[in-house]
What does this fold into?
Amino acid sequence: MPKKLEAHFFSAHPWHGVSPGDNAPEQLTCYVEMVPTDAVKYELDKASGLLKVDRPQKYSNVPPSLYGFVPRSLCAERVAKRCVERTGHKGVQGDMDPIDVCILTEKTFTHGNILVEAIPVGGFRMLDGNDVDDKIICVLKGDAVFGGVGDVSQVTTAMIDRLRHYFLTYKQSPHTLKQGCQIVETYGRDEALEVLKRSFADYVAHYAQAPVKVSKP
It folds into this structure.
């Protein structure tokens, strides 16, 4: 079998084998792991590239938007340094995962394990213990309701509160009184683009791949 044809029999690894897009970071190709109807927490198995069950959702937390990550991004030293610069928190480090994304849309998606085109409009700077774990807020490209949003300041307070509540409570149980996660900053589009650029640089530094092409400011 010709090698060129043989390559088509294997799926690309969603983190390492998919480009974030020629117009990144202004427009992103994102991998969706979970949708709002999921009662099970799915996440990427980093070794195989397959979507796996992390755990059943035992309590009432469900993601209020599409949830996934940006391919060929990494929350490491440069992203952590930005957190220190902006918030003054010391002793933090990147969580060494790809940058997470929440994608707002009016449409109902029945499953994850898909790629979507999204526009970043802001984000949460979140700390999970001492780990920096930014969440980039995006809108689905061309969405009839959210597609015209250019910055997180244009998203309703109710939607932002739902997102915040999810991330502040999704690791808690009724027996856990201590809050493990905290959101130390909510930022707009320009800062989201800066975080994404740093995450691409972190990815290149750790995985020694060709630099991610990003569009000019």
Observations:
- Helices lie at 3-6, 77-87, 157-169, 189-207.
